Recover the amino acids of this structure.
């Protein structure tokens, strides 16, 4: 099993920041710690947060958000950073689907869970994610330093990409799911749900139940299963998806393993 809450790195205003390395692999090796980081967005990062980011030595940052999301919440980054940034230019010109959902749908536990299931069916096959995921895996095979991936909340797009990375590296399904679900504790969703519900009411004029907030803003193992089942239905296996859809051929897999596993 993984290190649980000790994986979390404390920042003033960057949520859900953690190390998703340091897991055992099926080959009897171990993913190196301090090489794979994941988080929520950095738009509210404090100066102290930026200083701490600088000490981690991140050499590649993958921002999984849409261009519109980046314009609305532009990232703060350390001054003079030489970090390579991977972003998507695919812009549909509209607001993010989760914002549309919050503004237009009944905020119930059932509707929140249904939205998440549909989102996870789409995620693996949308053009921006195919592009970004492929470029991320190429970076893993080339980058000598730590890589940081993030989206808005650091839970869905980021969570799926981290899980695919764990699969590629031979991390057990049990540890993969544990890492994915750590979001719920990392953001202390149970404690924060009432305040989030008030924010949603202010934004939409409608009330969201505690269950609706948790279902929409948290993660469940079934969400990841939905994405994997969708991938397997189209490609036959996760390995085939990695190779055919994302270009992770055997030589690249080997390079990634050599760089990240000890």
């Amino acid at each position: 099993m993984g290190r649980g809450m000790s994986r979390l790195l404390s920042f003033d205003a960057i949520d859900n920041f953690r190390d998703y390395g340091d897991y055992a692999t099926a080959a009897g090796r171990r993913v190196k710690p301090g090489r794979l980081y994941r988080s929520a967005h950095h738009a509210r990062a404090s100066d102290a947060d930026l200083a701490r980011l600088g000490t981690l030595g991140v050499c590649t940052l993958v921002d999984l958000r849409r261009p519109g999301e980046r314009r609305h919440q532009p990232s703060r980054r350390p001054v003079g950073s030489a970090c390579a940034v991977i972003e998507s230019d695919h812009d549909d010109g509209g607001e993010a689907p989760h914002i549309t959902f919050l503004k237009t749908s009944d905020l119930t536990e059932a509707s929140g869970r249904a939205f998440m299931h549909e989102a996870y069916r789409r995620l693996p096959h949308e053009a921006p994610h195919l592009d970004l995921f492929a470029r991320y895996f190429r970076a893993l095979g080339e980058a000598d330093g730590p890589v940081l991936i993030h989206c808005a909340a650091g839970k869905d797009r980021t969570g799926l990409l981290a899980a695919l990375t764990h699969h590629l590296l031979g991390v057990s399904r049990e540890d993969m799911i544990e890492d994915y679900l750590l979001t719920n504790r990392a953001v202390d969703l149970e404690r924060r749900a009432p305040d989030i519900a008030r924010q949603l009411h202010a934004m939409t004029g409608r009330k969201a139940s505690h269950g609706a907030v948790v279902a929409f803003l948290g993660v469940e193992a079934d969400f990841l299963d939905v994405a994997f089942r969708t991938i397997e239905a189209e490609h036959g296996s996760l390995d085939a998806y990695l190779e055919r859809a994302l270009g992770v051929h055997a030589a690249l897999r080997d390079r990634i393993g050599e760089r990240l596993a000890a």
